[in-house]
Design a protein that fits this description.
heterodimer; A: 338 residues; D-Maltodextrin-Binding Protein, domain 2; five-stranded mixed beta sheet; three-stranded parallel beta sheet; 14 helices; globular; disordered N terminus; B: 425 residues; mainly alpha; MetI-like fold; three-stranded antiparallel beta sheet; 9 strands; binds glutathione
């Protein structure tokens, strides 16, 4: 008798712990709020303003998912994570998804058991130095002190790069971007290295931005994208296709402002499926049929998100480059929506 | 006989498990034990299930894989090609070094402050009180950050040491210069000190699982030998004093024994100092003591010394006044009274709480992460954990290591405590 109670209890706890893992979509709906792991603060990508409103390129992706799942882009709680804490936060269920400049790598897929569902920014690692250091190439950094964020692909690439070029460096390992900037600006490091987009974003906030240059070498591939837990495929599909919906919207010329108009007038079957005017694609994801239309209406298409947050003309001033649509010679390409 | 029949035959009923005080305690213990076992089983089961659900299995094989990252301060050879286990060792050694030096400095400072706090000099004792109260009552993390910020913000950049051709022509001095006869350079990154070099070093010995630096161990062995011989000399001097009442002169023998062999060895191996020199971005040559290390050491020392001072003060005050009065009556001067009469007795009261201060200091070294000091927490519990995704394994291993360090410290200190306890004669 005693034994069966014991195992019964065990089985019950197992069920409970097992349930916490699957069904993120249901969890989010039941909670009425999306928990999004974001940066601790990187202008242009994910940054809270003085009154606590988050904005940025990665933040908008979370808002799009919230709009698709819950119908409201403001039903998101942003949870700041550092390079070191982000994956643990995701795996322990503290957040539903991550959108914070995270690089898709083989070991993060396999060893860390994560799922990168898309690449929302194709990037590479670069170096920033002060102009008066008189350095024009990363290969001249022999003997330099370099600031790096811990828990990143950056620290591994850096080690490889210096080894390959037979030069040495002194690492200063810091926890987040703001600490790295403080050390770099105070002159405790000669160079700061991270994703080139991150460097541009950091530089934009520096009081003397013109005195800093980003060196020409890009030493790695850093495909950055949203991440979900491994094993919850339905939830992964929702995040992936919300992102693709934004890409398709750009391809088809659907914007935040004209989405209602397009919905009413479009004769393009793919557009009609995407916006929920025909078929039941939304329902197949377990969402409202207007889910993807809501996402586009909330944050605009990929191009709009890009130019609003980090594009040319903003302080960060990044060119589309690799992140142009495939039709424009870039790598951003969404599978067909059918 | 009549009595025996009074005892009820069916002596045990189930209700007695609760109402009979003879059995009740067993019942309670059993219930608590079962609940505890259930709780442990629940935790274990939950962990195993969750790991399985994520497709992770519990194993330590990752320790033998390539680490791939670099570590700023490494006291044993390490490159990014070394294994995660090697990185763990580098971190562990970094932890032990700050902990060891911290304990020594904190003890010295703590004893001095504790004694001075009881000084009859009003100003001195008040100053010591202020020191103790400020350091005890502000969190250690803030002291660490403060020391680090001060060290890195008030010191010059490496390039301030540079003398350009124009400056030379104009006869200008650089903004910053090296100290201690141009052998030590303090920059905003760290302190560059000269390093020992040997022209005819003894090389290294490869033991397969580790390599020994023979030069280093030769020096250690010679010093240990000298100390041993010196103790023999002192012991025989004491014996002679006890037997004859006259103490033979030993100081020159001690000096000779302690220093001559080491100096001879160093000369034989061609010892010289490598002075740090400004090359490119940083000083090259010599040893770089990063400010993260210095700041951590300073903060740990100052913070823990404040607690040790209080322990020392309590220990001294526990010795009855009669002891010092008796010593004064014998004509001993105050500082001799302190070192010969009071402190040896006070040690008995001081040591047990001192052990916990040492343990605290050792565990507090893990705050070094705040100033990028890569100790055990930074390597095994930081970068390795993060890059391999082995949270559970790394955390358990790290706990085990801290536990082992703490238990070793307590064991050693408890042995020492036994040796200073009153011996019944
Ligand atoms: N892409 C790299 C680096 C990620 C990373 O740490 N990015 C930096 C800047 S690009 C960042 O997000 N910093 C902001 C913060 O620490 O909150 C990775 O995934 O490991």
């Amino acid at each position: 008798m005693k034994k069966s109670v014991f195992f019964g209890a065990l089985a019950a706890t197992t069920l409970v712990s097992g349930m916490a893992l699957a069904g993120t979509l249901d969890d989010v709906k039941a909670r009425g709020e999306l928990l999004c792991g974001s940066n601790t603060g990187l202008t242009g990508f994910g940054n809270p303003d003085a009154s606590g409103n988050w904005s940025g390129f990665d933040v908008d992706l979370c808002r799009a998912v919230a709009a698709a799942v819950l119908g409201d882009p403001n039903k998101v709680k942003f949870i700041p994570t550092t390079g070191e804490t982000r994956f643990t936060a995701l795996q322990s269920g503290e957040v539903d998804m991550l959108a914070r400049n995270s690089t898709w790598t083989a070991s993060r897929d396999s060893e860390l058991a994560l799922d990168f569902v898309a690449v929302n920014y194709y990037d590479g690692q670069g170096f920033m130095v002060k102009k008066d250091l008189g350095v024009s190439s990363a290969k001249e950094l022999d003997g330099a002190t370099v600031c790096i964020q811990t828990g990143t692909t950056t620290e591994l690439n850096l080690a490889d790069f210096f080894k390959q070029n037979n030069i040495t460096y002194q690492p200063v390992t810091v926890a987040d971007d703001s600490e790295a900037q403080r050390q770099y600006l105070a002159g405790a490091c000669d160079a700061y290295t991270t994703d080139a987009s991150g460097l541009a974003a950091s530089r934009a906030t520096m009081p003397d931005a013109d005195n800093h240059i980003i060196l020409p070498e890009i030493i790695s591939k850093e495909p950055l994208g949203p991440v979900v837990r491994h094993g919850d495929n339905n939830w992964g599909d929702v995040v992936r296709w919300t992102y693709y919906a934004l890409l398709i919207a750009e391809e088809k010329g659907i914007t935040k402002d004209n989405v209602e108009e397009v919905l009413a007038s479009s004769t393009d079957e793919e557009v009609k499926r995407l916006l929920g005017a025909s078929g039941d694609m939304g329902a197949k994801f377990g969402l409202d049929n207007a889910a993807f239309k809501n996402a586009i209406a909330a944050v605009g298409n990929y191009g709009e998100i890009f130019s609003r947050n980090i594009g040319e003309g903003t302080t960060i001033n990044l060119a589309r480059g690799l992140n142009a649509l495939w039709t424009q010679g870039g790598l951003q390409y969404a599978p067909p929506f059918r | 006989m009549a009595m025996a029949t009074d005892v009820p035959k069916d002596g045990f009923r189930l209700s007695m498990l609760i109402y009979d005080t003879r059995y009740r305690s067993y019942t309670i213990q059993l219930v608590v034990l079962v609940l505890f076992a259930l709780a442990v089983a629940w935790l274990l089961n939950n962990t195993v299930q969750n790991l399985a659900a994520r497709g992770k299995e519990f194993n330590y094989a990752f320790l033998w894989q390539r680490a791939g990252y670099d570590i700023g301060q490494q006291l044993i050879p390490y490159t990014n090609d070394s294994t995660h286990f090697r990185a763990l060792l580098v971190g562990l050694i970094n932890t032990l070094v700050v902990a060891f030096l911290g304990c020594i400095f904190a003890t010295i400072l703590g004893v001095v402050v504790g004694v001075l706090r009881l000084s009859n000099n009003w100003l001195v004792s008040r100053l010591m009180t202020i020191y103790v109260e400020t350091f005890r009552n502000v969190p250690l993390l803030l002291w660490i950050l403060l020391s680090y910020v001060i060290l890195s913000e008030v010191t010059p950049l490496p390039r301030d040491f540079r003398v350009t051709d124009e400056m030379e022509a104009a006869g200008e001095a650089p903004n910053a210069s090296m100290i201690l006869f141009d052998t030590v350079a303090v920059t905003n990154r760290g302190t560059n000190i000269p390093s020992p070099l040997f022209e005819r070093g003894l090389g290294t010995l490869d033991l397969g699982f580790m390599t020994l630096n023979l030069t280093f161990w030769a020096v250690v062995a010679v010093i240990a030998g000298s100390v041993f011989v010196n103790r023999r000399i002192l012991a025989s001097a004491r014996a002679a004093q006890a037997a004859t009442g006259l103490r033979p002169v030993t100081w020159w023998k001690s000096i000779l024994v302690l220093f001559a062999p080491v100096i001879a060895l160093l000369v034989a191996m061609g010892f010289h100092l490598e002075i740090p020199e400004l090359k490119g971005f940083n000083f090259a040559g010599g040893i770089l003591v990063a400010h993260s290390f210095t700041a951590l050491l300073i903060a740990l020392t100052l913070y823990t010394a404040a607690f040790i001072a209080e322990i020392v003060r309590a220990g001294i005050q526990a010795i009855s006044r009669g002891q010092s009065e008796a010593a004064f009556a014998l004509g001993l001067r105050p500082n001799r009274t302190m070192s010969l009469i009071i402190l040896p007795q006070a040690l008995r009261v001081i040591i047990p709480p001192l052990i916990s201060q040492y343990l605290n200091l050792t565990k507090n070294t893990s705050l070094g992460i705040a100033v990028s000091y890569l100790d055990l927490r930074g390597t095994l519990g930081g970068i390795t954990l993060n890059q391999t995704g082995r949270e559970l394994e790394c955390m358990l291993l790290m706990m085990l290591i801290y536990l082992t360090i703490s238990l070793s410290i307590s064991t050693v200190m408890n042995l020492y405590n036994k040796s200073v306890q009153l011996k019944a004669r």
